[in-house]
# Entry
Amino acid sequence: MASISSSPRTVEEIFKDYSARRAGILRALTNDVEEFSNLCDPEKENLCLYGHPNETWEVNLPADEVPPELPEPALGINFARDGMNHIDWLSLVAVHSDCWLLAVAYFFGARLNRNERYSYIFTKLG
# Structure
């Protein structure tokens, strides 16, 4: 994975990070769908779709770090590409991406104090 790091520390920073990563993934699945589909070659290793905090996206292998710096997105998004209807495959990738976005947001949110967590969960993501 490219070294685009983010370490948000407040509710607002976490939401900004979440929104930017989401924008990148949405771009991959809409405006850049042809490029995204081509990068998901089923002959390659387990690939993941990453949204970055600068609103970009990337298809790449999972991080080598153990444990990883962030929760990992769904592995192997490329394997089902040719075995499914294209729209159904994109929908599956979108569902997995939504789950990953929430996992990353909650990963950062776990560092907040009780009052910040309450505000975060129920006002930004709820």
